[in-house]
């Protein structure tokens, strides 16, 4: 096995900017003009594509917010209607109970009147005899 390479001193290390410049200088820039032109067109097309996607993302988020708001409003309306229906049912039940009580009272009165009438008839018959 070959011996391990020694790590250069920290003082000889290049900072990140110098390292980037060194790498950029090492790149072969012998690209013809036609290739550069096609790369520029591709870059512009990609930028337009990114802009379209950003617009679509914004529209998507707006639509999502609108739907969410509509859902919340519809949910609130549903809860309100359910509460209103419960109140109507309670009111209807109360009226039904009140009506049943009223009918019961009138039946009792009618029984008493019939009994009184029968009692008076029997008294009249007794007096008539």
Automatic annotation (TrEMBL):
Region annotation Disordered: where it falls in the sequence: 1-27
Q: Which InterPro entries match?
A: GAS8
Q: Which GO terms describe its cellular component?
A: Golgi apparatus; microtubule
| GO terms (BP aspect) | cell motility
User: One GO molecular function term?
Assistant: microtubule binding
Q: What is this protein called?
A: Uncharacterized protein
Q: Which organism is it from?
A: Favella ehrenbergii
């Amino acid at each position: 096995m070959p011996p391990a390479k020694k790590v250069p001193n920290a003082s000889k290390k290049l900072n990140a900017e110098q390292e980037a410049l060194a790498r950029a200088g090492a790149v072969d820039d012998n690209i013809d003009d036609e290739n550069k032109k096609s790369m520029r067109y591709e870059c512009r097309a990609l930028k337009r594509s990114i802009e379209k996607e950003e617009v679509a993302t914004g529209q998507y988020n707006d639509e999502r917010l609108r739907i969410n708001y509509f859902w919340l409003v519809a949910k609130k309306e549903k809860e309100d209607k359910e509460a209103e229906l419960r109140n109507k049912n309670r009111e209807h039940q109360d009226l039904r109970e009140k009506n049943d009580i009223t009918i019961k009272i009138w039946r009792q009165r009618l029984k008493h009147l019939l009994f009184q009438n029968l009692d008076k008839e029997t008294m009249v018959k007794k007096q008539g005899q």
